[in-house]
## 1
Amino acid sequence: MTDLKQQRYRFSEAPIWDLQRAYYEQKGMKAWNNDQVPQYITSNPMIATSYAEMIFGFLQDRASQGHSSEPVLIVELGAGAGRLASHVIHELCQLRDYAGIPLPSFRYVMTDLAMNNVLAWREHPALQSFIAGGLLDFAQFDAVHDTVLNLIVSGTTISEGDLAQPVIIVANYFFDGIPQELLYVGDGHICEADVLVEYPEHMDSLQPSEVLHQISLNYEYRQAPEYEQEAYPYRNVITMYQEQLEDSHILFPVAGLSCLERLNQLSQAGFLLITADKGDHLLDNWKFSGPPELILHGSFSFTANYHAIQHVFENRGAIALFPPHHYKNINVGCILYMDTPINYSNTRLAYRRFIERFGPDEFFSIKEWMDNKIDSMGLQQILSFWRLGGYDAEFFIQSAKQIVRLLPDASDDELQDILRGIHLMWSSYYVMEQRYDLALDAGLVLFEMEMYEESKRFLEISIHEDEEEIVSTVYYCLAICCFELELEEDALNYIRELLKLEPDHEEALALIHKFESV
């Protein structure tokens, strides 16, 4: 550490927030490579299905109340890698088409602070059909300051009062990573905990993530009478903290509450918030809480204060839904802030079915346990969990070798279910910056299933997408597929490509000799 004097900041104005912004602006979509910033837990098909079911229930509720003529805007804050949005829109379209009932139309808007991310989404192959269909748009949005949405595809601006329908706000791993105030409650008074920042040596030569790993934070307290004034906008929840907490540090989400209020101003009818985070909605979990520590993952995050957000909007007439049980990895909440929220029965029932009874937190806990058990699983167990997870590509990649090992004893029904699962998985696959070769894994599994036409299709996708890193096994399998499909000239071409990579490949030499001797 340097010998420079420590610098003191109000917590919400500390340099950690500028470092956070710089990290995402520099990294762009690479921020999610190798799970530097976690994305799977909030972006897998299972959580996307849960969100789509709640949104679909909301569309049903609006239709039943006679509000079908105007479109519903869905705004995702901090859409990150973009995978969640892709899965949600895909599933929402499936639900809409399957139901075949009159509903309001919808448009999903992905937003982020980093413009590089917005531009990357605009060009992403998996999103092009949604863009073309008018279902998807994009906007750069600073959650701390911005008051309008400037949409990139349509070129329109959504300002105060422009929306006739309530706006749906999706906020995943969002509230834990934007500026917050740090309060200390003791002896019935509210203090602010200012942060003393000690910087690492040679800071100017370090990347933002390196500075965050080496920075040192300490706290000093000062009286903050403004929070105890009757005019303070969140006075009710502060009073509760004064009365019920002692020796407790509270991360207070002023920026998060302000963001929700500004988005609410866009609509004439309120909002539906769907959110997931490391966040506590139970007051008991904030009792005797110590000063916060940076949770580092490339960038950083804290524990989101869902209790404050819930309490503020419930006092204004909202219905807030959070699980009655304690969460382990991720807390999923839903806040209906509109006239007569009790009338939104389809939305509330969807929350009960897809979050409260068994939701993303339970799924992720089982997934973590199963990650170490795949090699001992049977085919029906793999198929069942794959189906539960919405035919997730990550789970398929993890279990592909075990599937191949189990194929000799697989029934025809199981083989057909694997084939169907691969097609469903591929139909909603979202390629990320750190690309797994899903087509290769799918093609090799299908090859072992002796489904040569299907295998050929996926293996050819693999070699066309990554021509610089083709392994010889792919050419060999493609040659066999073509021979089995009586495409002999194609088979010979693949053998020749294989021999360029491995001139002494015995099987390839035997095949070409056999063919030329005919």
## 2
Amino acid sequence: MRLLTTVAALRCYLTKCGSKNKPKFPEGLVLDEITSWYQTAVGLVPTMGSLHQGHLSLIKRARQENSTVIVSIFINPLQFAPNEDYDRYPRTLEQDRQLCELAGVDAIFAPNPEEMGIPPKSIQESQVTQVIPPSAMITGLCGRSRLGHFQGVATIVTKLLNLVQPDRAYFGQKDGQQLAIIKRLVADLNLPVDIVACPIVREPSGLALSSRNQYLTAQEKEQATVLYRGLQQAEAAFKAGVRDSSQLIAVVEQEVARVNTVFVEYIELVEPTTLMSLEKIAEEGMIAIAARLGSTRLIDNTILRDRQPIIAIDGPAGAGKSTVARRVAAELSLVYLDTGAMYRAVTWLVLQQNIAIDDECAIAELANQCKIELTPSNDLQSPVRVWVNDIDVTQAIRTIEVTSQVSAIAAQSAVRQALVKQQQSWGKKGGLVAEGRDIGTHVFPDAEVKIFLTASVSERARRRQQDFKKQGQPEVSLEQLERDITERDWKDSTRTVSPLQKAADAIEVPTDGLSVAEIAAQIINSYQQQLTQR
């Protein structure tokens, strides 16, 4: 692991790691087919140091999804007001370095303010060029008492993203306002980075992990748990049917009032992405709280969603995802969102228009301009009919030609961005079953039920051969199918964009020797258990 303290060293490191991270290619893979498969993705975890398990959860996620993981440690003067704790903020670089090394971090970028071109002053006093998020997002919640804070955050995050140019950057949900602002910043400035939101990590008591927790005495740490208890009470009320803002806030206030040493700064209900105040939750809301114990300021939040659960089914090619997902959706009367068919539809259109598979610019144009529709069908084998530009391609997208090229198309960033945006829009109300290779990790990371189906290569080849026979396709030998499946597994798991992975909270279901009915029963049982816990 490298410790880098200058911009010049960081740029040198990124240049070198970009050229050395090309993986070994499977035997027999033609070179001109793998230009999109170099696993050179860079993940950035921005921090202010004093690392704890919350930070380590971000690093772990980044380690799973990228070939290079960089942790930045920079205590940003611009986000501290003159009367705040910049000078006494914990500085534990050596301890942080050891934690990062154990967590598999490739490099730490730990510049001083001068190296970042930032004078050790607050944002109000600084002459540096500033990035100013929308006023409505930075004047509420923490923005009321921390004037200039989010301008300082946005300015330094933008600098870090420009310096590292990561594929993904990881932020915790605990700083819900910050997360929403950074997502908006990236969208508004068209920055080519995926902002990955990671769940809040808590101590066994429920207290959200924070570097500032070390300011608390043992007694204060115990008292601080009332913040989470208040949020839990709001969750319970929400599950009981309460949707009104004033009622939900009152529930939190009543619980927090039990500890008279906690000074509440605010308790508010806002829309999680825009941060606009809500009077009533229609789809989802975030209850956020800020409070002080002595001189220590703490924040916490919880997301409340009014939707039916989502079942996300992931797994490698040929594991039976589509068949099982159709069965589960039918038995639970849920919508079957055939995401794989969407990628197949784009692939079919690419082939129809004789566009080269590696012509990513032309394919990006196509994916963002074509009209894909999924309509219900009474046929259990094809419960969704697929239309592209008003052409029914339900059967056409299942040919060997499309199957052999869809993985390459699906790996292209522009294609995935266009289709994932549609999928997430359809998922807002929940009540659906979706299957693919990154549904639980990328498309619906907050899905209530996550399943990862697996099966041996030989079993998947046997199933694929049977499918081809049923579809009247030309016969392909098991040996060839096993080679094709092995190659596709490698491509799917090493691609830069949303690689095939099991979500950390997914239930793995090995399917060798199990019937579709048996597999579906396991998933339905998990779904019903989730409903009883709501």
## 3
Amino acid sequence: MRHLVAFRLAATLLLSSFYCAALAQQPTPKPTAPRPTSTAPAAKKPVATPGKVPGATPAATPGKTPATTTAGPAKPGTATPAKTPASTTKPAAPTTPPAAPKPAPVAPPKPQVPLPANMGSADPKVRYQNGKTLIAQARYDLAMQELEPITPPAARFDRGPEAAYLYAVAATRAKKWAEAEQMLNLLRNEYPTWPTIAEAFFLQGQVSFELGEADNALKVLSQIPADKLPAEREAMKATYLPRVKDKVLFQTLLQNYPQDAAVGRAYADKLVTGGWYTEADKSTLDQLVTQLGLDRTRYTPRPKAQKKSSYNVAVLLPFEFDDPSWEKQRKNQFVTDLYAGMRLAQDSLQREGRPIQLYSYDTGADTLQLKQVLALPELASMDMIIGPIYKSGSKILARYAQQRQIICINPLSQDADLVQDNGWHYLFEPSTVTQAKQAAQFAITRFASRTAVVLYEDTKDEAAFGQAYKTAYEALGGKVLQLRRVNSDVEESLGAGFAGLDLKTVGHLVVASDHRKAGPYTLGVLQAQGARLPLLTYASWLDNSRISLGQLDSRDVFFVHPKYLDKLNPGVRRFRQLYIQRQNLPPSVFAFTGFELLYYFGSQLHQNGPGFQQNLASSGPISGAVFQGIGYPAGAHDNQYVPFTKLERLEVEVQNPVGFR
């Protein structure tokens, strides 16, 4: 049976590949609205002694600009004129037109690995070998199809237990947790004497954790003999227990498994670094420190930050002060727009008697400059940190924020992995997985038919969207008939994605792709088949020059549109007016984002103080000042509200909206 060791090591939590893969630097975000052609003002590089921050030294700090508030414009909805703050300047307009961009080279398609011979063979030994080969090729769905018929005892295959285990491995790698659980139950019930049954219990623990059933996961893991997989079990607990976001549930786990050191240590971490600690937890934390022999210095929570009349917020963005060239300024347009929006929010909060002091730091485009900024003693005295832009820097700042217990907000990323297991790190944007879950909820309530076909682009984010959509939609009672991956750079791949589909018999179609070829190809297939089913896709299709608005308006096309701006909304109209008064150009979507981010989280600082996690989790969704809604319920760390549009008509209302005044 030891030939399964390689699969167990790979499937074990998928620890070596699933959670420890290095994240590449995030590319410059793509705007959902056209960028203005002029240049917005960037934060000015300081040339004199900066303003004082509590705990900061009076000497000038390179790369830092304090933004002091002035009696500037009120938030959108008021009629106070704007004043340009002293810490921003407007660079001269460019005199040289930009050179025509060179087309990016298209990478050649990857060669297709041939499928195993005799797929679907009547010989169980051939199917078994095919299943192993397909798993090695990462063709998990096909592997499951090959292995399933030879798994039950009725198949009378002498390697039925191994086939069932390999099926479960393929299902977990495809993130089909329900299918994996079903097969593992068969394996445990029908083959209880299988010599390697501990492998099945271990994999069942992972599946239960992924399904959010932490109590069952710990119960299953406890049934493994003590001498089997001890290090792997502890690694699994260390990976999954920090993801439990419900404090009451974690307290139940602590009661049910009082001698489990991993549970106790994870709960102590949640109390100290996860923002869960209250005075009522003092005795529990003291008991855990004594029982587990934890370092009392490390597990002594910081005194709860008191509410103040004014708060200091650090803004860590790649302003690129050292490169004043027009090309760099144009490339960094989204950064200066983002910061300009924050400055307007600062003025609005000042008008309301809720002052925020902004301190901007140039982090550049690499992690070295970010680390230099984080080494400044004054950063530890900040009440909140906004930034940075790139993933590599976000991971560094996330660790810093957790150690220092300072809430940090990533302004643009949609990667939920960045805020995983960190109670001090938030995304302002809804994550890709959240968008998929909300899209599934929208579809189940909007579309009469309960069947769907989901196509997703061959990228990490779109793969996460596709799988999350299928899981959420089927949990709500729907059925995803096909879940297929496509590579829009290869027309043959697009053709294979739609091959064999009769879209006239499907309830709705989901296409998770930003690729400019995906939209025209999809609409062409729908036209060729005469299919009129609803289509759910990304809002980026609205900016695709290859698709006319007439093509979209003639069909039931709905867009996942996190950055939807209702142009008739008074807040949107007022912000646009104030921004033009100050910057002499219309605001981009990044300017709106900067305003909403600081206005929302700045208000949280004044309402609840610097440690506002618990209050945020219970506050529910609210109507944003310019965007449709914002919400972080039940300990979520990415915005859980995602609007959907059909061209310019908003199709979803905010639950329990709070009016913007």
## 4
Amino acid sequence: MRTDLRHRSTSPLTRVRNLGILAHVDAGKTTVTERILYLTGATHKRGEVHDGTTVTDFDSQERDRGITIFAAAVSCVWGGHRINVIDTPGHVDFSDEVERSLRVLDGAIAVFDAVAGVEPQSEAVWRQADRHAVPRIAFVNKLDRAGADLDSAVRSIGERLHTVPLVVQLPIGQEDEFTGVVDLLRMRSLIWTAGRDTYEEGPVPVALREEALRRRRVLEEAVAELHPAALEEFCERSAVSEQTLAGALRDLTRTGEGVVVLCGSAYRNCGIEPLLEAVVAYLPSPLDVPPVRGTQDGAVQERAADPAAPFAGLVFKVNSTATGRLTYLRVYAGTIQKGDAVLDAGAHRSERIGRILRVQADRHAEMDRAVAGDIVAVVGLKAARSGATLCAPAAPLLLEPPTAAAPVVTVAVEARSRLDADRLATALARLVEEDPSLAVRTDPETGQTVLSGMGELHLEVAVEKIRRAHGLEVGVGRPRVAYRETVARGVSGLAYRHVKQDGGAGQFAHVVLDVEPLKPAAADGSGSAEGFEFLSTVTGGRVPQEYIRAVEAGCRDALAEGPLGGHPVTGVRVTLTDGATHSKDSSEMAFRTAGRLGLREALRAGVMALLEPVVEVTVTVPDDAVGAVLGDLAARRGRVAGQAARSGTAVITATVPLAELFGYASRLRSRTQGRGTFTTRATGYVPAPASVSGGTLSS
């Protein structure tokens, strides 16, 4: 239902912006966030990443490593607008933090390095934002660096992200001489003088006027191609007015048809005020996004962003602190106050709101209530997990939770002392509660406690958190990757008869299965339902429909462990071609058992292949170290996909098995005298060579 426009124009929600800062590691996300907080008066001193004084990187590990690890929420006010910001990690190992943050955001600022342009993780988080339909504006940062090139960065945005970049600024000066920008909408210059906290506005410099007019014309033409109102005005007047252009840019941003591109240098405090103005002008308020959708008794329902509507909110982060359990919540509809009872719709459990906090990273300000559009932390919830829906008990609604990625790297962990075993179990349970991309299980063969995560760094951070937060000495085994198994050659017509008679009602089920590999495009290597397809060609009612569903469920059960090494099975199609029932002894349980045991027998009878996870590695090294790095990548079974020169360095892109990357950081440092860096991005699974298969089986 559309919100009444007269009510909308006066609603406080029109002055709220919920946005995230997205980028590749080291592109400057945290510095941009720090400058936003400083210029809006939320902080009184500019924090620096290299000094460990930033607000959002408050965890000791973040300050030690110099990177963002945990998504941090902050809030500020600009021009009468409440801006809630989530600074997200840029490292691939912590992409699940980005996923959970994007689920509750209305917009985002994508930050790009003016030298590197679109980097691998920039592309990955952009795709995540695409999946959630989150409108974005782009900020090309670090224009003061040697080799900075706005046009090159913009070209990479268009080519790699498949969007239309709409550049609204022209830099004044290059590299060390960068001092400001030309605003192409208002045709004015904005100059930041060293030592000043704000800019000086003036006319476009004479030397840049011709170039500014040319770029304004390019912007008008690009917008006119995408926006009907701008096209109509352009055809009538051969130009587009500032007002029409601004409205068109807002519409194109919110539909995702184009992305507004601004530029600056956050470290030098240049370009942040126009960025904030663009956030207010172009990114949506909670009223500008579609009503949140959920289910109630199986029926899909919508709930508008209205403080007077029944309460509905989504938990996107849980954090245990020294003072208690903090539950981070996006309020989509309704109002909550201290002491209110709420329903955890997924767990059908009642909870009570103890306190409501406005979040400023690791600092909090108490609030009396939170309304639709707010992002807050609440105290008092005992069991709500990340992804839980909280709603009014009288109007239940279940929202879709964020999806957690499947872990790909595993280590065995154990307490140094037997007396600490229980404390370790408690610490691991708390870790998994805070970070759903971590998983803990007990290996049935060895009895070891196994911790799984998204990468080597992810697990290092998790183990170090146990040591620091809980004071535990923890032993860690060598990392292992999560292999998968798939069908290389299947079997046809495998008959399996399940008969059990031990007094009373018996069990009888007879199934005939064809098992074959899925086409590579359908086998995603995740071991999930997308890598499995079940068909039935049974005719004449020989197997009733309810029993066919039971056979499918049994086959899915069998995919948990393959015959090669007990790894999950993916990339398989199973067809039920025939079967038989018994008038008294057949049941859904019997056919589920027949499906499970029958598929296991079929997998053992066919030819299986092992799949290993691979990642795209982007290595940046000095020119004189290229040969050594290429040789090392080849030794790690890497396949080089590309190589480019950039300001005295080489950027090498290669696909490498994840198992071969353990310890690569130290090896790269030694081969490049500490000057080389690398990033990774998961790309899926590929067949493992016989040497790996043999090693896995023998282990």
